[in-house]
Amino acid sequence: MQDFIILLKEKELKATPQRISVLKELTKKKHPTMDDLYEAIKLENPSMSLATVYKNIATLKEKGVVIEVNIADGKMRYDIYSTPHIHIVCKNCQSIRDIDYNENLFDYQNKLELDEKIKVERLDIVASVESCLLCQKK
Amino acid sequence: MQDFIILLKEKELKATPQRISVLKELTKKKHPTMDDLYEAIKLENPSMSLATVYKNIATLKEKGVVIEVNIADGKMRYDIYSTPHIHIVCKNCQSIRDIDYNENLFDYQNKLELDEKIKVERLDIVASVESCLLCQKK
DNA sequence: CTATTTGCAAACCCTTTGCAAAAAT
DNA sequence: ATTTTTGCAAAGGGTTTGCAAATAG
Predict the structure, then answer these.
(1) What Å distances lie between residue A54 and A22, A38, B102, CA to CA?
(2) In whole angstroms, how far apart are CA A41 and each of A2, A117, B105, B138?
(3) Which residue among A93, A95, A123, B37 is buried most deeply as judged by most CB within 10 Å?
(4) Most A CBs within 10 Å, among B73, B106, B118, B124, to test the A interface
(5) Which residues of A25-60 are buried (b: 16+ CB within 10 A; e: fewer)?
(6) Cβ-nearest to A108 among B108, B116, B119
(7) Nearest chain A residue (CA) to B121
(8) Tens of pLDDT along B47-71?
(9) Residue A58 is part of a domain; what is its CATH number?
């Protein structure tokens, strides 16, 4: 809570209750959609509007606090930016799992960046999962 | 042209002029959006409707002929399925470059699939590009 | 006090859908 | 002749925007 206020000050953003709610909810729920955020925040702050969620996420994205996770189902999901990781999306139930970079991927990415003269910002993997905890798909 | 008709017969789809146009345009332009396809096809076939492009892409996707490329800008792009490759999206101008799998990535993917018990279907990389041919970004 | 942020409603844009007419096999 | 496909227009769903009122610093 106090952390959020400090973070927002650092980013030169005003610490409105709505903004803080968005940050709080982002740490609570993993990869929420806009609507997930909106519905959750409304429980504690019924006057919160969807447009405000959108505007706050846009602002936080610009400041690098939040990143988008795109699983190509028509809705964006959001994540507080922490350490670099990959998103593995279950092709069956659309659940998202985070996987930390391992040495292999670091090596691959470094080589790719050198060879192709790019700077990788995001790496998304869509996969079918043999045993997804959520959808129980075999 | 004749190839398309054979392909469609294989997939048990009727070879309508509209369908063939979609396939033809997909081989001409790389990663077109729906609107790219629609506008291009309309030049030769002015009665073509956007809905028909959508319906044909949906059908071709189901049959595995076409894959989606999602660069998270609100529009899907489409690609005739060929060999496995990665899409590298320029963060600046949204252009998409294909990169073939190399040994590094194969190794990485194999390890990831074993470790995480998944089957990778798609791998998208969003990157900032030092010298993008299209946007000239330095 | 000033600049930012909020909330509302309307607008936007891409995509999907229902249905009757047309076309493919 | 049967089934699929087309084209139109309307609807859908997520996201963005304009603007006046409210709020943070």
Answers:
(1) 10, 9, 39
(2) 18, 42, 41, 42
(3) B37
(4) B118
(5) bbeeebbbbeebbbebbeeeeeebeeebbeebbebb
(6) B108
(7) A127
(8) 999 999 999 999 999 999 999 988 8
(9) 1.10.10.10
Alpha helices in B12-93 (DSSP H): 17-28, 34-44, 50-62
| pTM of structure | 0.88
Choice between A129 and B31, residue whose per-residue pLDDT is larger: B31
Q: Å from B95 (CA) to D12 (C1')?
A: 29
State which amino acid sits at residue B111: K
Q: Is the pLDDT of residue B116 over 60?
A: yes
Contact status, residue A4 vs residue A23, Cβ threshold 8 Å? yes
Looking at the DSSP assignment, which residues form a beta bridge with residue B96? B89
Whether residues B11 and B76 share a domain: the answer is yes
Nucleotides in chain C with any atom closer than 7 Å to protein CB: 4-10, 13-18, 23-25
Domain hosting A135: range is 83-138
Contacts of A22 (CB under 8 A, 6+ apart): A37, A41, A53, A56, A57, A60
CA distances from B14 to B11, B32, B79, B91, B137 (A): 9, 23, 20, 39, 44
